[in-house]
Task: inverse folding
């Protein structure tokens, strides 16, 4: 096992315990910059860890980034580990990131759905949902990206527990989601929610549950264009961008619609590589290129937020 | 432990709105136990579906009978998963 975050193998996929160890190492190595907040527990009792990158102050505006909400999308927590290390390496060296962290905090939840992630490593590589049993059904789990209180229960999710897009019995029924909701509401100063999925190479903004345009659509659209242009500058990876309902499909109860409706203007979902050659089993040698190009897009968004504080 | 021996991932292309409806219908056929990796959204975007081995013949016949084009994106999913697992073990070792 890696003894330090320098030894951590960023070019490979890791089991949950290795990711948790990585988080603890990063905190221990960078005590003045990184701390770990346990915002709750998963259904099976695993901690829901958020890494907080902060240079001080109290209740600073914050940018939320999450990876690993759909457990089979392994590229997302793998990229999350790379992002975490990148932040500590670049702070104090990269002027743009330093300026962001001098004013704002970054909150990174690397594995939103740890039970599902563990299940993909031990029982079913293609598992997507949480692992809470559904009363009256032999089918397990809820799609955590249909469980949010934003158009919950409307078209764009399923009421059938056996479906991959089962929304759950009520909004925020899943502890993995409720914990984030409670944390964000208590925080009260989150300015961006960047929720990272895979695959299909898209950058999406609200809404997913309705075809009504978001009131900040113009700004979100322009910023998305800038972000994907920066992303493509590294390897030429082509992204599509636009509102979720227009670009991908109707999806009710999703993370960024909820965030946007809470007044968090900069709410985006990424769909990382690839175009479909590998789907959810993207080879490990693509982790670092994926993380590197995605980081450029994240930086474009974070710099814009920093320059346009609201 | 669930395995995916013989499962394939198909990439399905709709050439018009009629074919889009055809593949949307396909994705909703519960008995086939399909796992939609990327849903049918518009004509420009292909659908990716994991098809269990036992449903392969039915799905391919359904598509071919309706002149819907598809390619095999992943020929044997379990083979790729095994490869992934070996790679992780090597790295861990």
Result:
């Amino acid at each position: 096992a890696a003894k330090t975050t320098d030894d951590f193998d960023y070019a490979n996929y890791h089991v949950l315990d290795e990711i948790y160890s990585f988080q603890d190492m990063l905190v221990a190595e960078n005590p003045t910059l990184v701390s770990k907040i346990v915002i709750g527990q998963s259904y099976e009792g695993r901690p829901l860890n958020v890494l907080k990158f902060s240079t001080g102050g109290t209740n600073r505006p914050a940018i939320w980034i999450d990876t690993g909400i759909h457990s089979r999308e392994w590229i997302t927590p793998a990229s999350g580990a790379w992002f975490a290390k990148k932040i500590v390496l670049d702070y104090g060296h990269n002027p743009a990131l330093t300026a962001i962290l001098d004013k704002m905090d970054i909150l990174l939840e690397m594995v939103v759905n740890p039970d599902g992630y563990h299940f993909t490593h031990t029982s079913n590589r293609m598992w997507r949902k949480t692992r809470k049993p559904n009363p009256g059904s032999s089918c397990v789990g809820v799609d955590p990206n249909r469980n949010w209180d934003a158009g919950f229960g409307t078209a764009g999710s399923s009421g059938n527990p056996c479906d991959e897009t089962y929304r759950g019995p009520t909004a925020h029924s899943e502890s993995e989601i409720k914990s984030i909701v409670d944390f964000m509401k208590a925080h009260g100063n989150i300015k961006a929610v960047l929720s990272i999925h895979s695959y299909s190479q898209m950058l999406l903004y609200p809404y997913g549950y309705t075809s009504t345009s978001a009131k900040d659509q113009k700004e979100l659209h322009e910023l998305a264009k800038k972000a994907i242009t920066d992303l493509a500058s590294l390897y030429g990876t082509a992204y599509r961008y636009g509102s979720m309902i227009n670009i991908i499909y109707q999806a009710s109860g999703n993370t960024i619609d909820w965030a946007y409706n809470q007044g968090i203007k900069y709410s985006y979902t990424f769909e990382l590589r690839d175009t479909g050659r590998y789907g959810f089993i993207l080879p490990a040698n693509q982790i670092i290129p994926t993380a590197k190009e995605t980081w450029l897009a994240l930086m474009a968004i974070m710099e814009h937020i920093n320059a346009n504080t609201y | 432990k669930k395995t995916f021996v013989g499962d394939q991932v198909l990439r399905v292309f709709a050439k018009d709105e009629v074919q889009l409806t055809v593949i949307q219908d396909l994705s909703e056929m519960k008995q086939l136990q399909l796992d939609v990796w990327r849903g049918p959204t518009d004509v420009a975007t292909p659908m990716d579906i994991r098809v269990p081995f036992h449903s392969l013949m039915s799905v391919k016949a359904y598509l071919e009978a309706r002149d819907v084009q598809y390619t095999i994106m992943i020929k044997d999913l379990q083979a790729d998963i095994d490869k992934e697992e070996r790679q992780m073990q090597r790295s861990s070792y």
Observations:
- Strands of chain A lie at 34-41, 47-53, 62-67, 105-109, 190-198, 202-205, 240-243, 266-272.
- Residues 245 and 286 of chain A are 28 Å apart (CA to CA).
- The interface with chain B takes residues 9, 12-14, 122-126, 162, 164, 199-200, 247-249, 276-281, 283-284 of chain A (CB under 8 Å).
- The radius of gyration of chain A is 18 Å.
